[in-house]
Design a protein that fits this description.
The structure is a single chain. The N and C termini lie far apart (58 Å). The protein is α/β, with parallel strands linked by helices. The longest helix has 17 residues. A hairpin with a 2-residue loop joins strand 4 and strand 5. The strands form 4 sheets. Strands 2, 4, 5, 8, 9, 10, 11, 12, 13, 14 and 15 form an 11-stranded mixed β-sheet that branches.
C-alpha cells in the first residue's frame, strides 16, 4: 500500500483537489488501456471524510458486458484494477465513491475507452521533434485522412518542444491541429508497427513525454544513478523521473521506446561491467522503470520490452568518440539484447543524418530573403529542402524520421510480436588486414535472413564512416580533450583508466 501512495502522489501533483473524486490527469476519455493478458488500472484522488474509510468502486460497461470492481484506497488516493480485456471495444468506466466521501459529486466517468497495446516514449529532443519538422509528415497526414491508422491513439505531456495533447485518435489529432505537434519518432514507430502487424494490429496507444536537452540522470532516480560511478548529479537530476515517469507508473504498458544521449556526450561513457558512466546508467534506468511499472502483479511485465535508438551522426554536441557512445548506449556490448540489457530492441540512427544537414548553410542563414553571398555557395539544395520542411535548430535534429520509425517497428515486430523479420543490422564479428586488403566478417547468426550489401566506395572530403585502427598503441575509447602537442589525453583507455598517449589517436592517419 505504501507503493500505491508513492506512485499516486507524484502522478497527481499536476491536479488540484477541487472536486470530490477525480481521475488522474492521464486517465481520460478516448484512452487506450493495456489489453489481455495484462490487467489495467484507472486511478485518481478523492476528498474523504474523517468519519469512515472511503469505499470506491469502478464499473466497466461495453461490448454487451458490465462488471464492477472495488478500488484500493489509501488516504485520498484510489486505484481500481480492471479485468484483463481483449483488444478493441468501446467502454465507459464509471467510478463511484459509495461511502466515506464528502457528499455530492461522488460519481465520475470516462468514455470511448478501448484496449490495445500501450507504448511509452521518452528521451530528449530527437524523440520530441514535432512531426511538422519531418519530411514524411504529409504522407502520413494523407494516409490518416484516407482512413488508415485508425487504430492509433496519442497522448502527450506538455514539454519544451510539444504542447499537451489529451488522449485522442490520430484522425481527431489532424482535425484539431494537434497531429503535427506530436512526437515524430514516437508516431512513426506506431505507424510502422501498424504496417508490420497488418490486419492483426490492435489499438495502439502512444504516450509521449520527452523533454529537449534532458540527460539520463534526469530520467533516473538519484538512488539508482548513484550506483553508477562517474555520473554527474545536480539539482536537476531525477526531475523527469519524478514528473514524467512516476505519474504513469500505475498505467499498464506494453513497453517503452527511448531516444536520448546527445546531452550526455560530454560525460564519461564508461562500462556497464565496471558500473561506470553512461553505459551503466542506461541499463540501470531500464531496470528501474521496469520495476516501478510492474510492482502490482499482473500489470506491466517485469521484463517489459524496451526499444532504444542510437544517436544520429549529427548528435555529438561538438564532442569526439561517437563510436564509443554507441557502445555505451548498448551497455558496452555493441548489440542488443545483451546480458546487461535483456529483452531490448534497437534502431541505429548513425546513418540517418539529415539529407541536407549542411550546418554552414544553416548557421549563415543562406536562404532567401537573406543576403546570399559567397559564404552561401552550394546552398541552393538546402534552401529548397527547408522551404518544404524547415529545420528545428539545424542538422542536430534530422528531419527524416520515418526510416527511424520503420527500424524501431521492425525490431519490435520481430522481437516482441514474433514477426519473421530481421531484428538487427549487420554486426561485425572481426576484421583482418592483409597487405592493402581489408576483410570484414559479420556475425552470420545475428544476420539471420538478411544479406550484407556492399556498394562502391566514393572518397570525399569527410572521413569514411567505417574506420579501422592501424596502430593499437594509439587506441583510446574516449578522449578527454583531443590531441595537443602530439599527445592524446585519453579519458578511458578501454580498461577504465585515464592515460596520456604519445601520439594522436584521433588523426585520420591513425585510422
Amino acid at each position: 500500500m505504501q507503493t500505491l501512495i508513492r506512485l499516486l502522489l507524484s502522478s497527481l501533483l499536476v491536479m488540484q483537489v477541487v472536486g470530490l473524486i477525480q481521475f488522474s490527469d492521464h486517465v481520460q476519455d478516448h484512452m487506450v488501456l493495456q489489453r489481455y493478458p495484462q490487467k489495467s488500472g484507472v486511478y485518481g484522488i478523492l476528498n474523504a471524510t474523517s468519519s469512515s474509510p472511503p469505499v470506491v468502486s469502478a464499473t466497466v460497461a461495453g461490448e454487451g458486458d458490465e462488471y464492477t470492481v472495488e478500488a484500493k484506497v489509501v488516504g485520498n488516493q484510489w486505484i481500481a484494477y480492471l479485468k484483463p480485456t481483449p483488444d478493441g471495444g468501446n467502454y465507459t468506466i464509471t467510478v463511484t465513491c459509495k461511502s466515506g466521501c464528502i457528499d455530492g459529486g461522488n460519481v465520475i466517468s470516462i468514455s470511448d475507452v478501448t484496449f490495445g497495446d500501450v507504448w511509452y516514449c521518452g528521451g530528449q529532443s530527437n524523440m520530441a521533434l514535432p512531426l511538422i519538422h519531418t519530411i514524411s509528415r504529409n504522407i502520413s497526414l494523407a494516409a490518416i485522412q484516407g482512413g488508415k491508422y485508425s487504430n492509433i491513439r496519442v497522448h502527450q505531456m506538455y514539454g519544451n518542444m510539444n504542447p499537451r495533447t489529451p488522449w485522442m485518435t490520430v484522425l481527431n489529432a489532424t482535425e484539431q491541429d494537434r497531429f503535427f505537434t506530436f512526437s515524430s519518432t514516437c508516431y512513426y514507430f506506431g505507424e510502422s508497427l501498424t504496417d508490420f502487424l497488418g490486419t492483426a494490429a490492435p489499438p495502439i496507444g502512444l504516450i509521449h513525454t520527452a523533454w529537449g536537452g534532458s540527460t539520463a540522470e534526469q530520467w533516473t532516480s538519484n538512488k539508482t544513478s548513484s550506483q553508477c560511478k562517474n555520473v554527474t548529479q545536480n539539482s536537476g537530476s531525477q526531475v523527469w523521473f519524478d514528473q514524467r515517469i512516476v505519474p504513469f507508473a500505475n498505467m499498464t504498458v506494453k513497453g517503452f521506446v527511448w531516444y536520448q544521449g546527445e546531452n550526455d556526450m560530454g560525460e564519461l561513457f564508461g562500462n556497464s561491467e565496471r558500473s561506470t558512466g553512461y553505459a551503466c546508467e542506461v541499463p540501470s534506468m531500464i531496470a528501474e522503470w521496469r520495476e516501478l511499472f510492474s510492482q502490482e502483479p499482473g500489470t506491466t511485465e517485469p521484463n517489459a520490452p524496451f526499444g532504444l535508438v542510437t544517436l544520429a551522426s549529427s548528435g555529438s554536441e561538438g564532442h569526439l568518440d561517437m563510436g564509443a557512445m554507441y557502445m555505451a548506449q548498448m551497455g558496452s556490448y555493441g548489440d542488443l539484447p545483451n546480458p546487461a540489457m535483456p529483452n531490448t530492441f534497437l534502431a541505429h540512427a548513425y546513418d540517418i543524418a539529415d539529407p541536407w544537414g549542411n550546418t554552414t548553410c544553416y548557421k549563415n542563414k543562406c536562404c532567401p530573403p537573406n543576403d546570399v553571398g559567397t559564404k552561401c555557395h552550394g546552398c541552393a539544395g538546402y534552401c529548397n529542402s527547408t522551404a518544404g520542411t524547415n529545420f528545428y535548430m539545424g542538422g542536430i535534429h534530422p528531419r527524416d524520421k520515418k526510416p527511424l520509425g520503420i527500424r524501431l517497428a521492425q525490431a519490435c515486430y520481430g522481437s516482441v510480436y514474433g514477426g519473421d523479420v530481421a531484428v538487427r543490422g549487420p554486426v561485425i564479428s572481426g576484421c583482418r588486414v592483409e597487405g592493402n586488403k581489408l576483410t570484414i566478417t559479420f556475425n552470420s547468426t545475428l544476420l539471420g535472413k538478411d544479406q550484407v550489401a556492399v556498394t562502391d566506395y566514393q572518397r570525399h572530403n569527410n572521413a569514411s564512416s567505417l574506420q579501422v585502427l592501424t596502430n593499437s598503441s594509439l587506441f583510446c575509447m574516449q578522449t578527454k580533450d583531443g590531441c595537443k602537442n602530439g599527445t592524446t589525453n585519453c579519458r578511458d583507455n578501454g580498461d577504465g583508466k585515464q592515460v596520456i598517449i604519445d601520439g594522436d589517436s584521433e588523426s585520420l592517419t591513425t585510422w
